[in-house]
């Protein structure tokens, strides 16, 4: 069975390409039925918006008839609402949906992302040059497309993200930080050696009968991983990271496990980091024994779901509250550790958040340089990472690796529950606008249903250049304000239009976090500034903002609202003409 259908914009004659391809799944009738249903739901949109089921906590402005999420601030375009893949929400009008395209490559379309965007009014396209609004693609596809992104397109990678996801790069960055700032602050990744460059060093340790886990530098899902304890088992020509094997891990009922945690970067400069409060706990299928004669048993020593689901002992789990099977929710693990191990899980979580922040800071300079080299609008990029963490027998967290494109497929029923919520919260937090390609007739129709005159992506918010005086303010603070108290007292007194644009996005993100928790910046994360290669202006700005309004956001929001009502954020005003503002 093959279903391919071309869709065209009647007004422009533009072909959007194939809506979907089913030929890869022609033997799976259930899959085809579900996809046909999703396609019918997507294309059968009403001409005008209607008030739909609002059982979700989507905050649609009651003054607007458009079922979109209004910004907290005037003269900022609204955001598309993403509904859960199993939820129904108010339908967008066809004046919008005919322009909402989601690009995917032929062989890569993660199920939870796909179902969520289809449910929310998007249509799939395989054409990379189409006017698509968003994509969840592989790193290779990103590298091919990054130089050709349109201003209104959002993609799930940052330039140079391999500084975190490549295992050799990750270790190199963290090891460099340990040498600069002391091992005590960065002793959270197992000792590692780069093969073949450091083979001689590793051989000396192997001669003492130690166990190491070999990982290809840029692979995932357990591919190519193996445990070794003798030097002749190590390939001398291939590129590997040899990581000291944690011999005494924490166990669940005698089984080894690790944590898959989800970390979201919405901006590099300023640095904004979120962590998802729910995650997945992956449990091995053979009881753990730390003996050399068991090193060949992948079902005992490796926790990857892609490996253990091949075991005849693998058992699924369809309830995030139950402590059963070979996959648990993070919530279930915390309950287990609290009641069975008498553990302080809040302390474990605090340490994990510190590991996440320091790891990203270790690559921050490279990430900033990547953004400068490609110079995209601040709207274009976001990235969800998968952080793999293992707890040892003392319940100390260890970072194993970072995945730059974590699986959003549904390997198990529990995956569908956790990743379904994750996909919705991720897409809502990063904030998608309607692309600014609508024709005059569509815009006129939509403006009659919204209090905002600007419905679509506004380049003045994401692409506006700094004035010379704005640049001077930034240079002055970066050069002279090494004392935190100095910039806390001064940087918020006179906000430039660019300052306001940065703060608008910061507050709009915080208004739609779902189950994400902002971990950087906060009122206390200035303590991590000592690890940055350079203290950048925008990080100082957000530090001062959090210090002033972190415990009570409303006064800060009101201050920004006043400026936005005057369209101040859309200007490039010289500093000498800025309105005098001081904190009350």
TrEMBL record:
It comes from the Eukaryota. GO terms for biological process: microtubule cytoskeleton organization. One of its GO terms (cellular component) is ciliary basal body. Keywords: ATP-binding, Ligase, Nucleotide-binding. PROSITE patterns: TTL (PS51221). GO terms for molecular function: ATP binding; tubulin binding; tubulin-glutamic acid ligase activity. Transmembrane segments: none annotated. Pfam families: TTL. InterPro entries: TTL/TTLL_fam. This is Tubulin polyglutamylase TTLL4.
């Amino acid at each position: 069975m093959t279903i391919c259908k071309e869709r065209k914009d009647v007004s422009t004659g533009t072909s959007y390409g194939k809506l979907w391809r089913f030929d890869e799944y022609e033997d799976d009738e259930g899959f085809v039925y579900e996809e046909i249903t999703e396609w019918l739901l997507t294309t059968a949109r009403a001409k005008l918006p209607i008030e739909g089921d609002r059982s979700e906590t989507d905050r649609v402005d009651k003054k607007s008839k458009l079922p979109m999420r209004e910004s907290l601030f005037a003269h900022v375009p609204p955001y598309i609402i993403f509904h859960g893949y199993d939820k129904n929400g108010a339908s967008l009008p066809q004046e919008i949906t005919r322009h909402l395209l989601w690009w995917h490559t032929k062989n890569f379309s993660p199920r939870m992302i796909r179902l969520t965007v289809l449910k929310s009014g998007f249509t799939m396209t395989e054409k990379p040059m189409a006017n698509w609004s968003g994509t969840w693609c592989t790193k290779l596809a990103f590298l091919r497309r990054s130089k050709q992104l349109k201003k209104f397109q959002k993609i799930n990678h940052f330039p140079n993200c391999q500084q975190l996801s490549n295992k050799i790069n990750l270790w190199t960055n963290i090891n460099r930080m340990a040498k600069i700032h002391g091992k005590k602050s960065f002793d959270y990744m197992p000792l590692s050696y780069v093969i073949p460059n450091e083979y001689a060093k590793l051989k000396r340790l192997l001669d003492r009968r130690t166990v190491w886990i070999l990982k290809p530098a840029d692979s995932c899902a357990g591919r190519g991983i193996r445990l070794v304890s003798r030097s002749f088992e190590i390939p001398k020509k291939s590129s590997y990271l040899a990581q000291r094997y944690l011999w005494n891990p924490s166990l669940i009922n005698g089984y080894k496990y690790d944590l898959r945690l989800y970390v979201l970067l919405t901006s590099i400069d300023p640095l904004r980091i979120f962590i998802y409060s729910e995650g997945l706990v992956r449990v091995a299928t053979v009881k753990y024994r730390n003996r050399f004669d068991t090193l060949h048993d992948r079902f005992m020593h490796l926790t990857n779901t892609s490996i253990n689901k091949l075991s005849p002992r693998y058992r699924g789990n369809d309830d995030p509250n139950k402590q059963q099977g070979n996959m648990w929710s993070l919530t279930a693990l915390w309950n287990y550790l609290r009641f069975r191990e008498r553990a302080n899980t809040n302390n474990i979580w605090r340490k994990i958040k510190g590991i996440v922040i320091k790891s990203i800071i270790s690559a921050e300079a490279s990430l900033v340089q990547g953004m400068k080299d490609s110079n995209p609008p601040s709207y274009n990029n976001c990235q969800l990472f998968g952080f793999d963490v293992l707890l040892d027998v003392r319940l100390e967290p260890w970072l194993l690796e970072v995945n730059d494109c974590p699986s959003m497929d549904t390997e198990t029923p529990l995956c569908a529950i956790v990743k379904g919520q994750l996909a919705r919260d991720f897409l809502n937090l990063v904030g998608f606008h309607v692309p600014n390609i609508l024709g005059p007739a569509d815009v006129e129709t939509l403006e009659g249903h919204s209090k905002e005159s600007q419905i679509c992506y506004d380049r003045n918010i994401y692409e506006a250049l700094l004035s010379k005086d704005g640049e001077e303010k930034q240079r002055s603070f970066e050069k002279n304000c090494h004392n935190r108290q100095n910039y806390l007292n001064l940087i918020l007194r006179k906000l430039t239009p660019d300052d306001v644009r940065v703060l608008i996005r910061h507050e709009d993100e915080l208004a739609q976090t779902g189950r994400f928790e902002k971990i950087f910046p906060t009122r206390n994360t200035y303590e991590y500034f000592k690890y940055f290669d350079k203290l950048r202006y925008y990080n100082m700005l957000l530090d001062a903002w959090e210090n002033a309004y972190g415990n009570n956001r409303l006064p800060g929001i009101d201050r920004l609202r006043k400026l936005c009502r005057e369209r101040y954020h859309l200007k490039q005003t010289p500093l000498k003409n800025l309105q005098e503002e001081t904190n009350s």
